[in-house]
Automatic annotation (TrEMBL):
Belongs to the bacterial solute-binding protein 1 family. This is Extracellular solute-binding protein. Keywords: Signal, Transport. The lineage of its organism: Archaea, Methanobacteriati, Methanobacteriota, Stenosarchaea group, Halobacteria. It comes from the Archaea. It comes from Natrarchaeobius chitinivorans.
């Protein structure tokens, strides 16, 4: 059995993890903000650039005693791994590292409460949708300086575009990790049945129809058909491959376009080959592992699970397609950013920048970060996937070279979102996705409702939500 390389939970000190999560944890910061930049802050806790500065500042800037990072990595192993990185940072800078953990869905509320209480953490890792909803609490100037220090040319261009401030050379946040949506299948089954690689709409339809045998508990395809985030992720690349978009170039809602109607119609046709009922991501494992399906849409983290249980030297055999192709190639991609928060002293800002550059800009540290959740933490720096240190991992080494060095990087490069178009970010997408309007449209069409009627009604609801 191969070592999966995951971190083991160690004893958590206060330095490693502030007891309590969410608002309670953020509340521990209250009264600890407002240092004067000279290391003479009014508290000795975990606030933004306060305390009795440690004298390791940049020039005349004195760093604080500690910094705090808000994130949503609730898994014990990942928290322990982040603590280890924090210890390494402290040994280099003298700045103690703390972490506060929140459930992902609670992040907007957490940040709103922290702004109201004037106790934001120094840095926060945020999904892109949350980042766009919290721009008033994010220090854009620092993000831009960090990206320039690390090197803009080291990042995937499309990921930088996703965090770029409209009509500006600045960035909202620093890309931290990403994961793309993939099409995963069993090549041996496809070869036996003479089926092509499932890349195009026609390929997917052909395979789903051929594989579908419900009387024998065999289903043609597994993808999202419920009104949840998984359905939105599956449908995004499908629709964008047909140039079907939510926003026009001018920001008008065009969900009722002919391209979107066609995408919904064909997606609904594919849905007849899924298992009975509305499908969510929780059904992937049982359906695929028990060989009830041989074709599914899943994010890169699912490759981790598909690789568990392999013997030493055994390679994962699943086929992986990096995008969906119709009028063009596209796939959905999630992006998590590292953000410097507002309200800090000069020393706090400097320490936050140093942490970001330490974590992302130094390959040894960044590879350790990416190894915390193999597949789910896909690198945002183009150089990393081909580095021996990155590939020297029990799970990653079981992936074929083509998957590691071509398929996954290509998927990252082709990642897109409905809220981004031609270099323009439309933050209004947050209101649309938060209310599951796209996912509900997908579910309704999958259940047999008319695609054009659904598209028109959904477009009107979208216009109402963002007006």
């Amino acid at each position: 059995m191969q070592d999966n390389g995951r971190w083991r939970m160690s004893h958590s000190t206060r330095r490693q993890f502030i007891g309590g999560t969410g608002v309670a944890g953020l509340g521990a910061l209250a009264g600890c903000i407002g240092g004067d930049g000279n290391g003479n802050g009014n508290g000795n806790g975990n606030g933004n650039g306060n305390g009795n500065g440690n004298g390791n500042g940049n020039g005349d800037v004195q760093l604080p005693d500690d910094i705090t990072m808000l994130h949503f990595e609730t898994d014990d192993d990942r928290r322990a791994g982040i603590s280890d990185l924090g210890d390494r940072f402290e040994s280099e800078t003298g700045v103690e590292f703390n972490q506060i953990v929140s459930q992902e869905g609670d992040l907007p509320t957490e940040i709103t409460a922290a702004v109201a209480a004037d106790n934001l953490p120094n840095v926060a890792s945020l999904p892109m949708s949350v980042m766009h909803s919290a721009t008033d609490a994010i220090e854009q100037e620092n993000a831009t300086a960090i990206i320039e220090s690390i090197g803009e040319d080291r990042f995937y261009d499309n990921l930088l575009d996703l965090v770029r401030v409209p009509d500006s050379d600045e960035y909202y946040g620093v890309p931290l990790y990403t994961w793309p949506q993939l099409t995963i299948y069993r090549p041996e089954v496809f070869d036996e049945m003479g089926l092509p690689e499932p890349r195009t709409w026609d390929d997917l339809l052909e395979a789903a129809e051929a594989l579908h045998d419900p009387d024998n508990n065999q289903f043609g395809i597994f993808f999202g058909t419920d009104n949840d985030q998984y359905a939105t992720q599956c449908f995004t690349g499908f629709a964008l491959s047909n140039n079907a978009r939510v926003f026009s170039e001018d920001g008008d809602i065009i969900f009722d376009s002919d391209e979107m109607v066609e995408a919904l119609e064909v997606y609904g046709e594919l849905a007849q080959y899924t298992p009975d009922g509305a499908q969510d991501a929780g059904g992937i494992g049982p359906a695929y592992d028990n060989e009830h399906v041989h074709l599914y849409s899943g994010n890169a983290f699912s490759l981790f699970f598909n690789s568990l249980g392999l013997d030493e030297g055994e390679m994962m055999t699943d086929g992986v397609v990096d995008s969906i192709s119709h009028e063009r190639e596209a796939t959905y991609g999630e992006l998590v950013t590292l953000n410097t928060m507002t309200g800090q002293s000069a020393g706090g800002f400097e320490a936050s920048e140093q942490w970001s550059e330490f974590l992302i800009g130094e390959p040894e540290n960044y590879i350790d970060w990416c190894h915390l959740q193999v597949g789910g933490f896909q690198p945002v720096l183009e150089e990393i996937p081909e580095m021996d240190e990155y590939q020297d991992h029990g799970i990653i080494s079981s992936w074929p070279e083509e998957l590691r060095e071509e398929t996954l990087p290509n998927a990252v490069q082709r990642s897109e979102r409905f809220g981004f178009r031609d270099g323009e970010v439309f933050p209004e997408i947050g209101q649309i996705t938060a209310n599951f309007l796209i996912a509900t449209a997908v579910r309704d069409v999958a259940q047999g409702e008319n695609a054009r009627t659904v598209a028109e009604e959904t477009a009107e609801e979208m216009r109402s939500r963002i007006s």
